[in-house]
Specification:
The structure is a single chain. The chain has seven helices and 18 strands. By secondary structure, it is α+β, with helices and mostly antiparallel strands. It has three domains: about 70 residues, RNA-binding S4 domain (Structural Genomics Hypothetical 15.5 Kd Protein In mrcA-pckA Intergenic Region, Chain A, Roll); about 80 residues, 2-Layer Sandwich (Pseudouridine synthase); about 120 residues, Pseudouridine synthase. The strands form four sheets. Strands 8, 9, 10, 11, 12, 15, 16, 17 and 18 form a nine-stranded mixed β-sheet that branches.
Length: about 325
Amino acid sequence: MLDTEEGEERAFDLSGRSGRLDRVLAEAWPDLSRSRLQALIREGCVALDGGVVLDPSLRMAGGTAMLRLPPALDAVPLAEPIPLDIVFEDEDVVVVNKPAGLVVHPGAGHDRGTLVNALLAHCGPSLSGIGGVRRPGIVHRLDKDTSGLLVAAKTDRAHRSLGEQFADHGRTGPLERAYLALLWGVPEPKAGTVDAWLARSAAHREKIAVTAAGRGRHAVTHYRVEEAFLDRGGEAAASLVRCTLETGRTHQIRVHMAHRRHPLLGDTLYGAGFRTKAGRLSPAAQAELAGLGRQALHAVLLQFAHPVSGEVMRFESKLPPDLSRLVAALRE
């Protein structure tokens, strides 16, 4: 066992043990509840024989488990008067237009200045506590540098309903989520589906990777090219693509598009190998891309059934100024 400033690491020999991963680990480490272990597994904190696993229900037999506990954080986030762009609000829900750069909930390295801190200041004690003290009101997430629409639950009743809708991913209800992304190149065909399983990368803990079917979590992204942009030589250089989610996995659109060899503009994590392609763009587009400082991804559409009235609520958000300027420069 290693206890450091970065957190605690534990290793356990699972020889002679079999069954669900979360149950076996709960027997190995009785000081951690099974629900806590399930959350840690989903967050990529558990490796089995050197490979990160994300499925608590994985059936395993033997091997060596490694657990990395994140560093301790303050028990309750502080309310902070951070400005919010509120699109809609009633006594049950609040829909916000999240800016790029705002982390959704506190975590390692981000215990202040998050959307949760802002919601606690805005909503007060009415914010739903079902998500736990670190994630009150949160039913879904956007990456720190992804902008756009996000709904939070102000009551436990709303949280339960929205949680069920997001878990269902719109298969039987009206839930719908769409994003606009700027990609390198133009996908072929110009409308299609990426169906690829995702798991935490064993080589790079910050990255999610496409994995074999049945390992990790199933992920499906539908896309449609809205507009193609030519470089100075008249060749297709980039495209504006609308993506809709059938599932909601960490970094899903970014990983799926990179898997198709069309990573997002500005995505230094999954598109680092495409930096040299910026030289093909016009000087104006190069300048806008250089100043972007984030992946070009915006949550443009959010639709759900109101958790109390059942009314279908549909919200749309225009591209923010930084992405609008980049699109305008690409059109030139």
